[in-house]
Amino acid sequence: MTTTHTTPRVALVTGGSGGIGKAVVERLAADGFAVAVHYSGNKARAESLVAEITASGGKAIAVGGDVADEHAMGAAFDSVESAFGGIDVVINAAGIMVLAPIAELNLDDLDRMHRTNIRGTFVVAQQAARRVRAGGAIVNVSTSVTRTQLPTYGAYVASKAAAQSIGLILARELRGRDITVNTVAPGPVASPLFFEGKDEATVANFAKATPLERLGAPQDIAETVAFLAGPARWINGQVLYANGGLA
């Protein structure tokens, strides 16, 4: 039996102050969600986004904390529940990416990336599993490079493949709760994370790689996330490749 709510649904978006996370926040707010905009380091940017949403008549708050710190995230979830009465949707868009050949990657970068992308995903998933209300959804953000397997992405893909596995298992563990758990795996998206360290020729090659011959926009990914967060109640335990047809 699917649960319905008569009050506005509530979403928490980690990494919600920039890039794909910001687009997800804006889309969910437009869809009528009360939104918690999570930030790790840029409080001002998160609060600016909250101000934009509230000025447009929406409901939003900013919550901070390291996604890999279970105490900080517990407090963040507490703040959302206190402000809005509960949580229906958790979108885990927080992540970092460091690219280098496996033979050359600094292991400190490996540890830092895996702390955010693996432990952070697990901590957020753990809190979400304990708190999301019936009829809710949990969505992780991964990458299509888990399938395309491009050079220099080894450590990053390892972390995102782990995040995908966490979601696949959690979907089965939440049997009987009427909560869906899915992962969105974007292709090349025009976001600050994607552009970092890439020259114009590299960006152009990525844009040509898809049959649609363009980079994705953060809004393209937000549309997919919003589908999984809202009407897509029969999609569960899946990885959706939102990548413009990239193989």
Topology pattern, helix = H, strand = E: EHEHEHEHEHHEHHHE
Number of strands: 7
**Percent helix range:** 40-55%
Summed up, the helix count is: 9
Overall shape: globular
Largest sheet: 7 strands, parallel
- The CATH superfamily appears as NAD(P)-binding Rossmann-like Domain
Cα-to-Cα separation, first versus last residue: 37 Å
- Please mark out the parts with pLDDT under 50 across 5 or more consecutive residues, or reply none: 1-6
Oligomer: single chain
Mean pLDDT: 94
Descriptive notes:
The protein has 247 residues and is of the alpha/beta class. It has one domain (10-187, 218-240): NAD(P)-binding Rossmann-like Domain (Rossmann fold, 3-Layer(aba) Sandwich). The protein is built from nine helices and seven strands, in the order βαβαβαβαβααβαααβ. A seven-stranded parallel β-sheet has the order 3-2-1-4-5-6-7, with helices on both faces. The longest helix is centred in the middle third of the chain and has 25 residues, at 107-131. The radius of gyration is 17 Å and the shape is globular. The protein starts with 9 loop residues before the first strand and ends in a 5-residue tail after the last strand. Residues 1-6 have low confidence and may be disordered.
